[in-house]
Amino acid sequence: MGSLPHYLSSSSDSKIDETTLLDLFKSQQSHLNFFFQNLSLPQTLAFTRTLLSSSGTIFFSGVGKSGFVANKISQTLVSLSIRSAFLSPVDALHGDIGILSSSDVVVLFSKSGNTDELLRLVPCVRAKGAYLISLTSIQGNALAALCDMNVHLPLERELCPFDLAPVTSTAIQMVFGDTIAIALMAARNLTKEEYAANHPAGRIGKSLIFKVKDVMKKQEELPVCREGDLIMDQLVELTSKGCGCLLVIDDEYHLIGTFTDGDLRRTLKASGEGIFKLTVGEMCNRKPRTISPDAMAVDAMKKMEAPPSPVQFLPVIDNQNIVIGIVTLHGLVSAGL
């Protein structure tokens, strides 16, 4: 058997407790409150309007932890249909600066405002004619003096006991950037459907994009039979298509009703050997729930779960009551809904 790492051993239990953790969270909350209470709204509004009016790409850059934040904020904007990208200050000095144009905005994240890599980047951005904005937390820094605009992100101190590890400053950068992103989202009137279109693999996207016709079974996958067919002759069709039901149709594929494996059990219990003489049409449900192929897939799921009792499938019919598919609960779940 292996042993616990030293930082999880019982000998370290006395070095940290709930009170210590609570005090740290309260301290961080206090530092964040300092930021909120001292942030300049005029500066922030000017920054937001500049990004909103940009006709080019909004590039974000930073070094170290600030670079991670810059990259994340850029990705947030992209997910909101705003043209944005992360520009590595090191790679920019080795060719990537070629992506910039005079219509672009470059936002530089730096706690100190004295980061060498960013200071070397500034004249290169200037040569391209892009608009420069710095987001810094130390007053009177070199970067702010060189940029077209500076937003001061007030920092009381880092949570780190040595006031060195960038944990509060990066939290402030992240809160600021993400809040501005949502402000831009609102100003650009991004719809829920447009947002979902940018997240097609996620559940939110699927629920707003996928229609019944995108997830339904069709053609040879359909468990169909005629109302005059004997129940016992249709057992293979009932069980082999994985839908748990039969779609009872006429010769022109109009939906007559449905017959489920539950109906089979109830019929067998009530009729015994008499089931061998019964037709599907005699025992089928002639008023099943149905749905249109153009309905949203998420609405199909809601319809399946609706009172008086849930169902596991819905026949998909067109406006002439012709069967064109079937959507199952299993299929919806498999599609990520």
What features would you describe in this structure?
The chain is an alpha/beta fold. The protein has 2 domains: 18-190, Glucose-6-phosphate isomerase like protein, domain 1 (Rossmann fold, 3-Layer(aba) Sandwich), CATH 3.40.50; 212-335, CBS-domain (Roll). 43% of the residues lie in helices and 14% in strands. It has 15 helices and 10 strands. The chain has helices spanning 18-38, 41-53, 65-79, 89-92, 116-128, 142-146, 168-187, 192-197, 203-209, 212-215, 235-240, 261-271, 280-283, 297-305, 329-334; strands at 58-62, 84-86, 105-109, 131-136, 149-152, 224-226, 245-249, 255-260, 313-317, 323-328. Strands 2-1-3-4-5 form a 5-stranded parallel sheet, sandwiched between helices. The chain has a 3-stranded mixed sheet with strand order 6-7-8. Helix 11 (235-240) links the parallel strand 6 (224-226) and strand 7. Helix 3 (65-79) packs parallel to helix 7 (168-187). The radius of gyration is 31 Å and the shape is elongated. The record marks 65, 117, 158, 199 as: Catalytically relevant. Keywords: CBS domain, Repeat. Residues 216-278, 284-337 form the CBS domain. This is Arabinose 5-phosphate isomerase. Belongs to the SIS family. GutQ/KpsF subfamily.
- In angstroms, what is the radius of gyration? 31 Å
Unreliable runs? none
From N to C, what is the helix and strand string?
HHEHEHEHEHEHHHHEHEEHHHEEH
In whole angstroms, how far apart are the ends? 43 Å
| Main sheet overview | 5 strands, parallel
Spell out the CATH superfamily of the largest domain. Glucose-6-phosphate isomerase like protein, domain 1
